[in-house]
Amino acid sequence: MILYTPLSPEEVLDGFGLQTPRTVEVRRGDALLLVEDTGAGYGRMVRLISGNPYDYLKPEWMPGSAVRLP
Amino acid sequence: MEQPGPTIEPHVPGKPPGRPPAGRRSRGDGEKPGRHKPRTSATVESIEALGTTEAPVNKSNIHVLTIIGQIEGHLTLPPQNKTTRYEHIIPQLVAAELNPEIEGILTILNTVGGDVEAGLALAEMMASLSKPTVSLVLGGGHSIGVPIAVAADHSFIAHTATMTIHPIRLSGLVIGVPQTYEYLDKMQDRVVKFVVANSRISEAKYRELMFRTGELARDIGTVLVGKDAVKVGLMDDAGGVAEAVAKIQELIRHRRATRPRPKGGTPARGRTVPGPRGPGTGRPEAPAKPGGGSR
Known about the structure:
- The complex is a heterodimer.
- Chain A is mainly beta.
- Chain A has one domain.
- Chain A has one helix and five strands.
- In chain A, strands 2-3-4-5 form a four-stranded antiparallel beta sheet, with no helix packed on it.
- In chain A, strand 2 (23-28) and strand 3 form a beta hairpin.
- Chain A starts with a strand and ends with a strand.
- By secondary structure, chain B is an alpha/beta fold.
- Chain B has a domain at 62-243: 2-enoyl-CoA Hydratase, Chain A, domain 1 (Alpha-Beta Complex), CATH 3.90.226.10.
- In chain B, strand 4, helix 4 and strand 5 form a beta-alpha-beta unit.
- In chain B, helix 2 (86-98) packs parallel to helix 3 (116-127).
- Chain B is globular.
- Chain B starts with 41 loop residues before the first helix and ends in a 37-residue tail after the last helix.
- The A-B interface holds A 1-9, 12-16, 18-19, 21, 40-42, 47-48, 50, 53-57, 59-60, 63, 66, 68 and B 42, 45-46, 49-50, 54, 57, 63, 70, 73-81, 85, 87-88, 91-92, 94-96, 98-99, 112-117, 119, 142-144, 164, 166, 168-172, 184, 187, 191, 216, 218-219.
- Strand 1 (3-4) of chain A pairs antiparallel with strand 3 (104-115) of chain B.
């Protein structure tokens, strides 16, 4: 990985490898949503995987938006 | 004495006043009477669960992309970094290119750089769009943010925004062999060549800025503030949101005039305006600058 940034690698990479992302896959039609479970039946949108490019313009599937878990 | 006033029906939640119950009324849209059932839309769900309502949607023909924080590449960065991920941006750019309702793309940058591969991927994507693109650097557009900023047909920088030009580095385990240096040099050439091909700056000037000493405390290179970036030919204009929006609307009008949209289909493919942007660049030039934006 080549980081091209005026920040020092220590600042950027501090804590690298410590995180444990916990995402669940939610299927909505043909799209697959990677959602971080935040509890109470809801999650935070992390990534959308879809072959339909227009899915990526949907505001409800933007990264960070709340998604109801099945 | 009681005055006879206008009759006011008590409002029953879920039932519009002054109308018969939905179940008994023929809706005239093919729905059978008595089969109306309550719907739970996404809006109702979010009101119930989160107490939020959606703002009214007013569709724009300009797609706005915000590039903030670190450009994240193949590795997920630790959570103290605010990041922009290429897997989020690249499909959006594809959708914006395909969607006939979107006529232009406005990129807002406040980035501190990041992964070279991911940054160049985003920059190449933006440069290859057939629709007009305008970029605006607010705050900072450092390092790999520079190619992304210059990838647009017309680039703006806020008067107080900065752009850091400096050599790339290799982090992690470095094997001390000549090939390591050659690889690093090749990676740097990718950045330099893209910036030179997509802006008015010469390669010699860009390299001079990149290797200048005495300006940065911890590195070699240069910090360009606002109009300095315009003077050296890196950015096209100094300005803010108003100038950027006016420019993209001008580019859209120009595109409509020169390439009318075919009936019932998507716009014809290809660049907005033919003609090179600079000598030997192969990049098209936006219509003549109105001269606005610079103070």
